[in-house]
Structures are given as C-alpha cells and as structure tokens.
From TrEMBL, chain A:
Molecular function GO labels: aromatic-amino-acid transaminase activity; L-aspartate:2-oxoglutarate aminotransferase activity; pyridoxal phosphate binding
Biased composition (Low complexity): 9-20, 78-93
Protein name (Swiss-Prot/TrEMBL): Aminotransferase class I/classII large domain-containing protein
InterPro entries according to UniProt: Aminotransferase_I/II_large (IPR004839), Ethylene_sulfur-biosynth (IPR050478), PyrdxlP-dep_Trfase (IPR015424), PyrdxlP-dep_Trfase_major (IPR015421), PyrdxlP-dep_Trfase_small (IPR015422)
Pfam families: Aminotran_1_2
Key words of the record: Membrane, Pyridoxal phosphate, Transmembrane, Transmembrane helix
Domain Aminotransferase class I/classII large: 170-546
PANTHER family in alphabetical order: AMINOTRANSFERASE ACS10-RELATED, BIFUNCTIONAL ASPARTATE AMINOTRANSFERASE AND GLUTAMATE/ASPARTATE-PREPHENATE AMINOTRANSFERASE-RELATED
Any one GO BP annotation for this protein: amino acid metabolic process
Species for this entry: Arabis nemorensis
TM stretches of this protein: 48-67
Automatic annotation (TrEMBL), chain B:
Residue ranges occupied by any Aminotransferase class I/classII large domain in the UniProt entry: 102-483
GO MF terms, alphabetically ordered: 1-aminocyclopropane-1-carboxylate synthase activity; aromatic-amino-acid transaminase activity; L-aspartate:2-oxoglutarate aminotransferase activity; pyridoxal phosphate binding
Organism classification: Eukaryota, Viridiplantae, Streptophyta, Embryophyta, Tracheophyta
InterPro entries according to UniProt: Aminotransferase_I/II_large, Ethylene_sulfur-biosynth, NHTrfase_class1_PyrdxlP-BS, PyrdxlP-dep_Trfase, PyrdxlP-dep_Trfase_major, PyrdxlP-dep_Trfase_small
Keyword Lipid metabolism: no
PROSITE patterns: AA_TRANSFER_CLASS_1
Transmembrane region(s): 15-35
Keyword Transmembrane: yes
Cited Gene3D superfamilies: Aspartate Aminotransferase, domain 1, Type I PLP-dependent aspartate aminotransferase-like (Major domain)
Keywords: Membrane, Pyridoxal phosphate, Transmembrane, Transmembrane helix
Family from the record: Belongs to the class-I pyridoxal-phosphate-dependent aminotransferase family.
Protein's recorded name: Aminotransferase class I/classII large domain-containing protein
Length: 557, 492
C-alpha cells in the first residue's frame, strides 16, 4: 500500500511541476526538498516508471529500517505516525508536499549524518546503540520458562498469606527441607567458622578466584560422598565458579570456538540456550530422544545428528549430557555412559557431563554412576575429553550461594578456566561458609541422607496423585523434578496446544510448570514438575488445582 | 588422469595461459580447504568394538581445546602477571622471610583492617541472619534464588554509598544499577554489551594491565591505546582521542567507545570537570559510548576535587544514555575478597542486558546481606572513609618522601592506592628493553615487585607503578634501602 501511495504522491507532484513549468511556488518547495529534487532529475531523465518506483521504495525501506532501529526514540516514532497519517489522506493537493518534505527531513538526516558537524542537530535524535549481541540477550526472555517465573514473582503462593497465588513448580530449588538447613546454619559449624575462620584479612583480601585449596579438598570429599565413594576426586583438578551457569559457559568457551556446536540430547535443561549460546557464540544441535525409547539417548540418532552437522559444515566439538537428567530425572546407566564415551572417542570430541543433581538421587535402587568413574579406568587420552560440572548450591539446597565446580583432567582447560574465573568468581566469605559447611563428613552424610529421604517422600506422593488423575510420569530417580505426560489434556497435538495447556495451568490452576517445548522436547504434551519446592502438605493443593484444569480440559473436549 | 584431461581441453580450446593457471590454482585451493576442514576429526572407524578402539586410542590423538582457549591457557608474558606470580612463590615477611619479594604490584589496602575487623566481629552474624516475622532465623532469605542483579535493598544502599563517596553532588538511581561480582565482570559485561566482536574501545594509556584480560579474553573487543605523555602529566587530550579515532577508522575498525579510569590507574591523577566535559562532547560528536571506571573514587587523598562522570552526564548538556560507570568496593572499602562491584548505566538496554548476563557472575545472597548492613551503617562508613583517606595520604607522603631522598621523583597524583614512579634515572638504556631489564633487576636483585610501564602500555619507558597501601610503616625503609642499593650498583 505504501508503495502505491508514494508513487501516487510522486506522480501528482510531477504533474504539478509539468503544468507549472517547475516555477510556480517553487521557491518554498526547493528549500524543503533538497534531497528529492536531484533524484527526480534522475527519474525523469532516464528510467521513468521503474526507477521512479524502485528508488522511493528503497528509500522508504531504509526509512523504516532506520525508524525501527531507533524506535525507542519517541520523537521519531511521532514523526512516523504523522507522516503515515498524512500519506493516507493525500486526496488534498497540498498534503503530498508536506508528506514529502517530512520524509525529506528524514532523508537529510539519514544521508547527512556522518558528514554533519553540528552537535545540536545530532544529539537529540542520535541515541547511541548497544552492540547487536547485547540486543539478542535483551530480547531472549519470552520463553514460557521465564514468563512463568515472572508470574510467580508477581503473585506467589503462600499457605496462609496468599492461598490463591501461583505455586512454583518450575524452578529447581529445594525448599521443603529448610528446617533442616536451619540446624546447619544456626547451631552448627557455620557460626564458629565465621567468627574464627573469618579473620578479616582472611575474607577481605584477594584470594585465588578458582577456590582455596581447603575448599577444593572439601568439595572433592563432598563429591565423593555424593557418588557414594565409588570414585575419588583430585582437588587439584577442580575449578570453582560462581554457579553452574558460568561453569558451563566457561567450558563451552574453552572447548568450542564461535560457530562450532555441541550436541545436546533433548529434552534438556532450558538454561543451556543462555549458558552456551549467549556470550560464547557456540551453537547447540539438539538430538531428539523419544518417549518410545523412554527418552534414552540413542546412538543412532546421535550419529545421524553428527553427520548432518558435518555435512552442513558445522564442526561439532562435544556433547553435553545431564546425569541425573534434567528434566526427566532419570539416571544414565553404565552401559549408556560407555556408549557415549565410545561415541566421543570415535569422533574425537569432548563430553560435558552435567552432574549438578548428583547428590539428589532419591530412589533407593537408583545407582548414580559419575562419568568420572567411567573414565577413571581409561587411558589419559580419554580422561582429557571428559569435563564434569558439579553444583554445590543445588545439592546443599543453597542456590543463593552461587557456587559450582568444573572437574577436568585436561590441563589446558584447567589453566584457561582458572584464569577465566576472575570473570565469575566465588567470593571469599562464600568460600569460608562452604568450607565450614561441607568439611564435616558426619554432617555431609546426614545431610545427603535426609535430603534423599525428603525428596523421595514428596516424589512418591506427587506421582501417586498424578497417576490417580490419569497423568503418567516417567520414572525419575534423581533431581528435583518429574516429567509428566499430559498429552491427553492438550487440545491440539502440537506446540501450540502445549502452550495453551501451560497457560491454563498458570491462569486457572495457578501453578507454574515448565512445558516440554522449553526443554526442546519434540513431542508435545510433556511437562516438568519441580517438586522440591513443595512440602508434603502442599501436594494435595497442587493435585486439586491440576484436577480443576483437567476437568476444564475434558469439558472442552 | 580422468580429472585433468577435460581441463586440458578447456585450456587449449580457449584462454591459454591465464585460464590454465587460474583453474589449477583454484582447484588446489579448494583441495587445501577441503583437507583442512577434514583434518581434525579423522574418519570414523567402521568398527564399534571397544577392544578394537583401545588399541587405536593413541593414534586418534588428543582431543583439542578451542583455538580461543589456547591463548588464555598459555602462560602469560605480561610483566604484571609475571611479577605477581613471583611474589606468590616467595613473599616477603618481616619475621619469617626477610629476603622475600615485597609486593608493590597489587592495588590492595590493609590500612583500615582494624576498623573492618571491629565491624565484622560485631555485626557479621546479625547481618546474615535475617529474622522473619515470628522472630526466628529465616534461612530462605539467604538460601534461595534471588534476582541476579542484586537485592533492591543492596542497590539502594550502594547508590547511597556512591553518592556519599563522590561528594554528594550527584544521586544515583538504584534502578539503573546492576550489582556484579566485582569490577572485573562489570567491565567484561559492559564491553560485551557496548561493542561487537572486532570493534574497539579507545583507552588512554598508561592503563590498568588487567583490562587486557577482562576485555580481550572473551568478548573479542580490541583496545586501542591513546598515548598520553609525561609532559601533560599523563592526562588525555581530545586531540589525541581524535587522532586515534581517525586512525582506527582508517584501518577499518569500528570504535564503539572510550574507556578510562578516573582516578586514573596507574598514574593516580584525577580528570578535571573540563576534561570530562571534553571527553563526553567528543563521544557525542562521534556517537560512541563512554565507560568511566571510578573504582578508586573513594581513595582520593589529594586536594583536587573528584568529579564523577555521572555528574557531568546529568548536567543536561549531553545525551546521558551513552555514559556507563563502573564502581566496586574492592578498593575503597578494601574488601576485594567480597567481589562486589556495580554497573551504573543510563542506557536502559544496557541495564537490561547486564541484568540477564548476571546469571554468570552474581553476588551470593549471604554476601549481599552482609554488604547491605555494612553500607547502611552510615556512622561506620563515615568514620571508615575519613580514616581511609587520611591513612592513604600519610602513607603516600612517607613513601614519596623516601623516593625523593633517593632522587627518584613521582608523577603528581591525587588518588588511588599507588603512585607512578619515574625511574628513568635508573635505566641502562632508554627503551622498553631497558625498562624490562630494570624490572627484572628490581624483582630478582632488590626483590621488589613493581609494575613496569610497558605492562600498562605506557609509551615512555622508565615509569613504574608502586602500590604502597598494603605496606606497613616499617616496610618503607626496607624498600628504600633495597632501591638505594640497586641504584648504587647501577651507577657504579
């Protein structure tokens, strides 16, 4: 539409020029139309219709582009509005000129920019722009994962204060055993440590960013405890970072160049999109797993993804696995891990094993096998390709502490990530807190055990309840969540149907869960429920709300 | 020969020499490209048997790290870091290691540890143990996920503290603020947000050697030094900026902003209000950003008044959205271990992007709680800041006086935890090489680690940065004696 409009305005203008021999009232016009007049010469002189339409279209396109980039600037958008509104009502003979002089104003601004030296002219319009990659970061926020969290923040459920609020089942943090943590903090080692250990020079001055040796030894002990002492970790191969997000970011920086890719079996943790891609420029290639295989990683599919990527010219540098898996909560078997190691060896790629929930295996029979144990017996060459991410705050249910660890046998990775930790360091007060919390082996054992029991309790309750509602969950042995199959409730078997149901759960049921599409699951209708936020008292409330949603869904169908 | 024969036909048929050389060259190039791309992942063996693979293990070769991680992992060649390493291996101790290396290379301060010690021992526990309504300790206030950009209370306290430190002439808006885990991530995040890979920032040199790592390691942003000279007391001029800007543009690199420290690190001088106006005007003219690193704002001991870039930005004369300020508590409150810094930006997009990027370097909630009560204890802060300034000034006078007696002058400075020492008289040759020789001598003969100007990209050789705030009074005579010895041996 706009194109015809500009054409018309141009032709009406040339008509008037023809009739008036370019003289009548020209003085006023030429002042305002310095940019357009030479163009008209070009148009009239040669190509006629084609050039006459192509050039204005091109200009209009640039104008739009320019406006879009500067949209924040109110004065500009105001101009645009008035310009377009006057274009729409161009039946008046006087109006086209106004339109054109206005767009001409923009054009002078556009073309004249670099050459103009007048500061006053430049300053109000020319707002300085941020880098294009920062724009990507700003925009990336509308996935349901983050929308849901925002809703919970606005209207959080509280048993006594706000019983109608939204219940958080989306965020993997551990809430229900806090009374136990109270013991830890208030009676136990922390207090002493803070007052004894925290002599001011101890916590205030510069300390190695990658962690004090003392802390590393404590962490290594804690990790061994979490893996039931089947493997011993060497503290000198640990690098501490502020949170698992930065651990993964540092690893992807060190293992892959910008434009390279990692294979990630899906459904996967929704955080990878940010951690891996945002700043490092590394791509993720999703390798879909299906419910028919119980969401196990299939080597055939992995192979295919690898070769397809290679064919497209994308270099694969590694594979990221979660064990216990996020969002399913299942454990990878020893055979599975060997198969993945074989795959990585054949293709000569790295393995990032994300074991942040290793200490939260709640099923009695579930045997957690760390990738470290698998490579422990292998040759050096294989050890060098395995990197383990471990999160202290998840297993201690203390995410506010923001501390995680990278465990690797690769010297280059270790020395590079040690230097990079200055960019995401663990502060010394935190380090001392952690040392006192986890260097007491008796406490750690008691903690891990109680943690398991409580997770187990809520998990069985929730899964039982969901089953009564006709919602099946995959078997989950670890982590804070279960993976529920709700495809019976969605109206259309598609991502849209899934998001619809998610909206219903959020608005009608007032519970925030993570839809499978956030985890890049290719089958619609799966949802991740984080039950670690709940106490056993809350489970019936959640189930009631889900029942309500189920009923509305069924009545619609 | 199947491949070559049809080609020959083409060549003979038409172009002769030209096509005949062009086509093979092309083919060869394509072949190289193809080989290069295939080289690192060798063809997968058809077998998948484990035992078979084991024997092949060695022939596959080691798995490689990314090419950008290699320079990071490599041992550094900057004298700044070499010196720090050497001190770590053999630190001076008055009692136990009298022959150790004295640290003058790290800008940290122990001048007011007595005050901090007192505050911490009285308030540390209460500040973390937030009580809930029923009077019990509420663990969830420190254990759970909180907004990555920092608790609002902390940002309010920070804003208040910053305006107090910067003379009270400017107030800071907590909603423009993002709390980071120290000044280092703050700089990296800003560089990431303001410049794309391959873009450049102008930076008046000599500058803080750590910027090299903070900015170049991961963001891929280049730093273009704008050389300042001793004749201007190392103050940046607009004409120098202009020249560097034009040169960069000629070379085809896009300049996205200017980064500078005020009070400057390593020189310690303070930019005047007029210079700040000039810089901002220049930035506006070129439509680029301004990053002002004001991490030493509270460590001003001279008579000159410190003016924050924020004050100039809100004066109304300029478009303030291009101004970004970095601040931190590591230097002014001498708590680098807490790793608390802040990005203060007038640009909404930058604030939003930085908030999201804080998932990688946020301050732990317990530490935030400590900081909230520390910063809101105004009586303590007043007392602390007064003695902090007073004690730096005393130490500075003592240190500079000692050097003067040896005939070694210092540049004029008003702020920072260091002074900028002119050791040109000790150089054997007036060049970078001579300076590094002197650095090596200071390190191994005199056993002093001072940062040489080359590490700071100073264009004139012979200048050294000496941080004096971590020294005890008794240490200063020791240092002077060591330098004297060195000077005498150099002159003889």
């Amino acid at each position: 539409m706009t194109r015809t409009e500009t054409n018309r305005s141009r032709s009406s203008n040339s008509n008037s020029e023809n009739s008036g021999d370019g003289n009548g009232g020209g003085g006023e016009r030429t002042n305002a139309m310095r940019v357009i007049v030479p163009l008209q010469g070009v148009v009239q002189g040669r190509g006629g219709l084609v050039l006459g339409s192509v050039i204005p279209c091109a200009f209009f396109y640039f104008l739009q582009f320019y406006l879009k980039r500067n949209r924040k600037n109110d004065s500009d958008s105001g101009d645009q509005n008035s310009a377009s509104s006057s274009t729409n009502s161009d039946s008046n003979s006087g109006l086209p000129d106004r339109t054109r002089s206005q767009s001409a104003g923009h054009l002078t601004e556009l073309t004249g920019l670099p050459r103009s030296l007048s500061r006053i002219l430049l300053s109000p319009r020319n707002s300085v722009s941020v880098s294009s990659r920062a724009n990507c970061v700003i925009k990336g926020g509308d996935s349901p994962y983050y929308l849901g969290q925002k809703r919970v923040k606005e209207d959080p459920y509280d048993e006594s204060g706000n019983p109608d609020g939204v219940i958080e089942l989306g965020l993997a943090q551990n809430n229900h055993k806090l009374s136990f943590e109270d013991d830890l903090v208030s009676e136990n080692p922390k207090e002493e440590a803070i007052s004894d250990g925290l002599s001011i020079s101890g916590i205030a001055s510069y300390e190695p960013c990658d962690g004090l040796m003392e802390l590393k030894m404590a962490v290594a002990g804690f990790m061994s405890e979490a893996t039931k002492n089947s493997v011993s970790f060497d503290p000198s191969q640990l690098v501490l970072t502020s949170g698992a997000a930065s651990a993964i970011e540092i690893l992807s920086f060190c293992l892959a160049d910008s434009g390279n890719a990692f294979l990630v079996p899906t459904p996967c943790s929704p955080g990878y999109d940010r951690d891996v891609k945002w700043r490092t420029g590394v791509e993720i290639i999703h390798v879909p797993c299906r419910s028919a295989d119980n969401f196990n990683i299939s080597m055939v599919v992995l192979d295919r993804a690898f070769y397809q990527a290679k064919k497209r010219g994308v270099r694969i540098r590694g594979i990221i696995i979660s064990n216990p898996s996020n969002p399913m909560g299942s454990l990878l078997s020893r055979e599975n891990l060997y198969a993945i190691l074989d795959f990585a060896r054949e293709r000569n790629i790295h393995i990032i094993s994300n074991e942040i929930f290793a200490g939260s295996v709640h099923e009695e029979e579930g045997e957690f096998v760390s990738m470290a144990e698998i490579v422990d017996t292998e040759e050096n060459i294989d050890r060098e390709r395995v990197h383990i991410v471990y999160d202290l705050s998840k297993d201690l249910s203390f995410p506010g502490l923001r501390s995680a660890a990278i465990y690797s046998s690769n010297e280059s990775v270790l020395s590079a990530s040690r230097k990079l930790t200055t960019l995401s360091p663990v502060s010394s007060p935190t380090q001392h807190l952690l040392i006192s919390a986890i260097s007491n082996p008796k406490f750690v054992q008691r903690f891990v055990k109680t943690n398991r029991q409580r997770l187990q309790g809520v998990y069985t309750e929730l899964v039982k309840g969901l089953k009564e509602l006709g919602i099946e969950c995959t078997r989950s042995n670890g982590g804070f969540f279960c993976w529920a199959d709700m495809h019976g409730l969605i109206s259309a078997y598609s991502e849209k149907g899934e998001i619809e149901l998610w909206n219903k759960l959020l608005n009608i049921g007032k519970i925030n869960v993570i839809p499978g599409s956030c985890c890049h699951c290719i089958e619609p209708g799966w949802f991740r429920f984080c039950f670690s936020n709940l106490s056993e008292r809350d489970v019936p409330v959640v189930l009631n709300r889900i029942r309500k949603v189920c009923e509305t869904c069924k009545s619609h169908n | 020969m199947r491949l070559i024969v049809p080609l020959r036909g083409v060549i003979q048929g038409r172009g002769g020499l030209f096509v005949g050389s062009l086509i093979p060259c092309c083919l060869f190039y394509v072949l190289q490209l193809y080989l290069k791309r295939r080289r690192s992942p060798p063809d997968p063996p058809p077998t998948s048997s484990r035992s078979n693979l084991f024997s092949r293990g060695n022939s596959i070769g080691r798995v490689r790290v990314s090419s950008r991680a290699v320079p990071v992992a490599k041992p550094t060649d900057s004298p700044y870091y070499i010196g720090l390493e050497r001190v770590k291996a053999d630190p001076y101790d008055q009692m136990n290691n009298r022959d150790g290396i004295i640290q003058l290379g790290l800008a940290e301060s122990s001048l007011c540890f007595d005050l901090l010690q007192r505050w911490m021992s009285e308030n540390l526990m209460e500040s973390m143990m937030i009580q809930s309504d029923d009077g019990e300790f509420d663990i969830s206030s420190i254990a759970m996920y909180k907004p990555f950009e920092g608790l609002l209370e902390l940002r309010v306290a920070f804003a208040d503290f910053m305006s107090r430190i910067m003379g009270g002439n400017v107030s800071f808006d907590p909603s423009n603020m993002v709390i980071t885990a120290g000044g280092t991530p703050a700089i990296e995040v800003l560089a990431f947000c303001l410049a794309d890979h391959g873009n450049a920032l102008l930076i008046p040199s000599p500058y803080y050697p750590g910027f090299d790592r903070d900015i170049k390691f991961r963001t891929g942003v280049e730093l273009i030094p704008v050389h300042c000279r001793s004749s201007d007391n190392f103050t940046v001029t607009v004409s120098a900026l202009e020249q560097a800007f034009n040169q960069a543009r000629k070379r085809g690199s896009k300049v996205s902003g200017i980064l500078f420290s005020n009070p400057s690190n390593p020189v310690g001088n303070i930019l005047s209000r007029e210079t700040l106006h000039d810089i901002l005007r220049f930035a506006q003219e070129k439509n680029i950003h301004v990053i002002s690193d004001e991490i030493f704002a509270g460590s001003v001991y001279g008579d000159k008044e410190f003016v924050s870039m924020a004050e100039v930005a809100v004066s109304g004369e300029f478009d303030k959205s291009r101004v970004h300020i970095i601040y931190g508590l590591s230097k002014d409150l001498s708590i680098p271990g807490f790793r608390a810094g802040v990005i203060y930006s007038f640009h909404e997009d930058v604030v939003n992007a930085a908030k999201k990027l804080m998932r990688f370097s946020s301050v732990p909630v317990p530490v935030q709680r400590i900081l909230i009560s520390l910063l809101s204890d105004t009586r303590f802060i007043e007392e602390y800041m007064a003695s902090h300034r007073q004690r730096i000034r005393e130490k500075y006078i003592r240190f500079v006086e000692g050097l003067k007696q040896l005939g070694i002058p210092c540049a004029e400075s008003d702020g920072g935890l260091y002074c900028w020492v002119d050791m040109r008289s000790l150089l054997t040759s007036y060049s970078e090489k001579g300076e590094l020789e002197l650095f090596e001598k200071l390190l191994s003969v005199a056993k002093i680690n001072a940062t040489p100007g080359t590490a700071c990209y100073c264009i004139e050789p012979g200048w050294f940065r000496c941080c004096f705030t971590a020294l005890a009074d008794e240490d200063i005579p020791v240092i002077m004696a060591r330098i004297r010895q060195l000077a005498e041996s150099a002159r003889s």
